[in-house]
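Quick log. Single chain, no ligands specified.
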Amino acid sequence: MRRIASTLSTPRRVLALVCAAMALASACLLTACGASSTPVETASESEPPQVSDTPLPSSSSPTDAASSATSEADAIVADMTLEEKVSQMFIVKPEDITGVDTVVQAGEQTRAALERYPVGGIIYFGTNLENADQTRAMLTATQEFSHEVTGLPAFLCVDEEGGTVSRIGGTEGFGVENVGDMSAVGASGDTTYAKEVAANIGTYLTELGFNVDFAPDADVANNPNSDTMTLRSFGTVGSEVAPFVKAQIEGFTEAGILSCAKHFPGIGGAEDDSHEVSIYSHKTIDEMAQDELLPFEAAIEADVPFVMVGHLSTPEATGDDTPASVNPAIVTGVLRDRLGYDGIVITDSMGMGAVNERYEAGEAAVLAIEAGVDIVLTPADFPTAYQSVLDAVASGRISEDRINESVTRIVEAKAHLA
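-> predicted structure:
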């Protein structure tokens, strides 16, 4: 296998990727600006800005800009090696690639790790986050290494929902209050408040250097026999949860952080915990469409950048008990085709018991990508999972076009972070 480090060590090649990423970011900026009446131009240091009294044609539309952004993303992907592309399809813990027991800083080991495995992103947990200064320094250095190695920003991720799932808020050393459980936010009946909560979380996360928050929780806690998601969910009825999910996505977006609706197709009614064992829903898809899917539809309407697929088994909906995270009937059939989602699909952690009791790490990663997933989150054995995907492409089990499809989505999302 060709080593990524040797490929990426060529300055000219990295510079080309950086330039392409900058062009993509400019195209995405045009998309965001829409039909702005004032043309925006960029000038290099070597060329003075050109001033003209003649207005530029106003025929450019957001659709044109989006098409340009896609073309730029295609160009970046075309210049990447297979190893680079497959690496981008993983988000891992920092320990997974550095070999360090607990990572609390980013130095030469982190740089070397990213040269060997230029992953799409890194997720940090409480053990990695000691205080604001340490976290900011670690994330800043990691992001600099990612730009140097790949020409692209890394997704720097955290689970920060508030309440029982909070790595920063309420933790000594950060000076930030925990915003509380989302069940209380939902009980308030105030979606404006929900948006403010998300904007608050997004603001303190971006100030630390994070750019992805795996929130909000879009599950519906509709099973009185289960308390697994009771505090994390906005409520017990899908139609009531949906506007809170939409409001929080808007709040995160305004704060400048990428959000993620989870855990598709909705695990709030499951009685067990997928961290430990398989979990089930015995509803049909049509029944889920009346309740569990409504918050995800609202998230898609709000242009949520990520949707996280859980490990829920839905035998009445799909005909077998294959977990949703590796089930094409759920990922492609429902999320992509039925709901029309074209953003980034990411699995829930592939180190959970609901997956590990069925599949080894490599097979789980391959199955997820075959199902339509774009990013595999924290596999139980990352090197094995990574190599298994490469082997699946080499054998023809997964086409390189399928890899390109996912990596293009990833690159397009990263343009907004450049």
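Residues 11-33 form the longest helix (23 residues).
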